[in-house]
């Protein structure tokens, strides 16, 4: 016996430090809302917070005067109501790593509320159900202890029949501790927040009621027949009128059915009828297996276009109402998402009902993560709960409670053991129990890279090259040939990839191409769905979305908690718009005379879609129409001829869109599913205008009404418009994927090179022929390397032309540049932006799939992307021209081939800000006119930009034209 074990054996641990403290609870069962009476105990509870757990259990005293206690809503987190504060860590535990012990400083919340037993309930069996309490709760009713519950995001029921009173108000008392032994099982990269955060309900269970049931509904794709068997705890009849089914429980029946899938979520409504209770059934027939190394549903390969979803709201934390859950599901469906991994715990049970109804494949994940034990270390930590046998019963209990609660959802096709715990024998025990209870679903776990006990080979944050090797069955072999052979036969998913932190993720297109090319690679789940920014105010009273460190935490991981496809207020980010385009289930490739349409759905044909086209000349509609597209089966393609299109005399693009023909529960008719574009005509050459020669007048060089400084060559006035001269710019406000914590940090080397603090020297200003030639050299202090730039200005009667030649000098061999372009500014009145190029949203070299060519308009303010942590944003790529105008329509037009950003603050302002509220409007509009930027990648957690998107210093040329608008 070790010294630690001896200590543990001699000193009894308090209940909050026990490995498996749950007691007094009922057996777990399926979540259901039947016609039996129920009473919600949600609402305002009396509340008291103490700094430690070692306090008298007076919360249960029926005579305790709690009139001076505060009021706290249930469900909620107490930290979001002024009691303590949220804290964010990703991997590190916010308490000492001393399992199963926790600090004496253990905030403890006492809850009390009274309720009256409804009339007619007396003498019946009555249950008290908690859907979620963080992290451990001790419960009393009328002064009598009911028991203990741990497992924060799992349900617990107590039988209170013997303790509830019908003739007087009932006092329910709950003591909740912030820290417990269970904390070591719940290190899940999210805010640490405590309390009764899910529903509390009193349930009447009449004699003969159906305590539990298990729906088995398989589908044989070869025959089109569905087989239904419902096991129940109490005799009942299974009634499905649409299928003509009226059978006793436990009897199997086979009938013709339409299968359930994420694309066609066919549900058959029925009832489970007992002697005293009727339970509504929503049956989805489907069979999910691994067939020859491929995950199939109803005989068809599944390709997951998925996201990882934490439960989060900026105002209520992990307490979500139904409207918010519906909003999540609707947004997923609208953006071509077909799968959810419930990272890293079972969600509110209502969410899974919505997945059944709307159609989403679900990986249901156990409430388990022990990341803070460094499970990937070469020498595994023996105290890691997945390895330490003392934790086994607690881990199996967590798995059991999830499976029993969620076993009747057709959307749930995979059980996941948890996340980032490393390997351990306790995981085997979880698998063994699960297989014995439910053999109809697959089992997933990522962090045992041998995949010894599971049905799927799963990894996270792999490079594209690694994914391709796995797709070819050529991954690095395991040392054990038997395990290696087993793993190579498994299907592969990337359970986390494309880390959606800040500006990004990049490289989605290339991942999707691999998923579509290699059958073994069955898609993945973007990390993650939503930024976990908490809505609050800063010291100046400005509203912000807070992240780690904003609440004075001892330890924190900064804005790593803001890494979602949605902003905290559930506004889609550019990353979500890009993901929708990349994973669109219809591929549309127009050509000169026809359109090639591929159906990438797993099972659905294209009969539900309309195909519309529009021809635009420099963004102006010329002609529109619809295509007659026959129904195309999943996995098939068709070529549809185009009608005769009218000629144009400008750059012209044909856009073909696939839209919903009829409304669905998640979108209106006309909602866009997919689109494709092809260029049909080019812009004619610009007509030559008479050349205007430069003239010198003292300190000024002029081209007509345009003025330059004769000593610096700087442009000051463009035909009466005050401008700040375009100058070479290499810096961007680092994005999260550039920053020091990323896997491929670029910001430190950029700052070491001085790219954020360049000095400029003008070496020549001269009038040569009809040109103004300005030569400069920019370099950082203490650096011999620099960039020599030649600006060659010419003018005609309608505008000003600039040709730029850039030459790196010195040692630039291994350098990656943030950007390469020009920076200038114009008066603040020029606040309306119109452009012809790609849009309407931002795009970067490796996030450009969702940007279509067209004519767009915006205010300068609306061009900004409000990332929770301010960073480079808002670039519009492949711009042909952009105009900035005032309220009267006067201003500036810039033409060429470039990307632009327009802001009311400088890049330095953006670089310095930590929250968007710190970005204060200045009296200018700053423009970046970029020849190129470095790709954004996914390096905040994953690989950086692919080589083809990396910006290297090289000699280059580009040109722009400036025209005054009056």
What can you tell me about this protein's structure?
With 966 residues, the chain is mainly beta. It folds into five domains: 3-205, Galactose-binding domain-like (Jelly Rolls, Sandwich), CATH 2.60.120; 213-287, Immunoglobulin-like (Sandwich); 290-530 and 565-580, TIM Barrel (Alpha-Beta Barrel); 585-681, Immunoglobulin-like (Sandwich), CATH 2.60.40; 691-965, Beta-galactosidase, Chain A, domain 5 (Distorted Sandwich). The chain is built from eleven helices and 61 strands. Strands 44, 50, 51, 52, 53, 54, 55, 56, 57, 58, 59, 60 and 61 form a 13-stranded antiparallel sheet that branches. Helix 6 packs parallel to helix 8 (508-517). The chain is globular, with a radius of gyration of 32 Å. The mean pLDDT is 96.
CATH topology of the largest domain: Beta-galactosidase, Chain A, domain 5
- The biggest beta sheet, please? 13 strands, antiparallel
Count of helical segments?
A: 11
Count of strand segments: 61
* Radius of gyration using CA atoms only: 32 Å
Write a concise synopsis of the structure shown.
By secondary structure, this protein is mainly beta.
Layout of helices and strands:
Layout: H1 3-10, E1 38-40, E2 43-52, E3 70-74, E4 87-89, E5 105-115, E6 125-130, E7 133-134, E8 136-141, E9 144-150, E10 156-159, E11 170-177, E12 186-187, E13 190-192, E14 195-196, E15 200-205, E16 213-220, E17 225-232, E18 237-240, E19 245-248, E20 253-256, E21 268-273, E22 278-283, E23 288-291, E24 294-297, E25 300-301, E26 304-308, H2 322-334, E27 339-341, H3 349-358, E28 361-365, E29 369-370, H4 392-406, E30 412-416, H5 425-437, E31 442-444, E32 457-460, H6 464-471, H7 481-488, E33 492-497, H8 508-517, E34 521-526, E35 534-537, E36 543-546, H9 574-582, E37 586-590, E38 594-599, E39 609-617, E40 620-627, E41 637-641, E42 652-660, E43 672-681, E44 691-692, E45 695-697, E46 700-703, E47 706-709, E48 715-718, E49 721-722, E50 724-729, H10 747-753, E51 758-768, E52 771-780, E53 786-796, E54 800-809, E55 819-827, E56 832-839, E57 852-859, E58 876-885, E59 891-903, H11 907-912, E60 924-933, E61 956-965
Parallel strand pairs: 12-29, 26-27, 26-34, 27-28, 28-30, 30-31, 32-33, 33-34
Antiparallel strand pairs: 1-15, 2-3, 2-5, 4-13, 5-11, 6-10, 6-15, 7-14, 8-9, 8-11, 16-17, 17-20, 18-19, 18-21, 21-22, 23-24, 24-25, 35-36, 37-38, 38-41, 39-40, 39-42, 42-43, 44-53, 45-46, 46-47, 47-48, 48-49, 50-55, 51-52, 52-53, 53-54, 54-61, 55-60, 56-57, 56-58, 58-59, 59-60, 59-61
Helix pairs in contact: 2-3, 4-5, 6-8
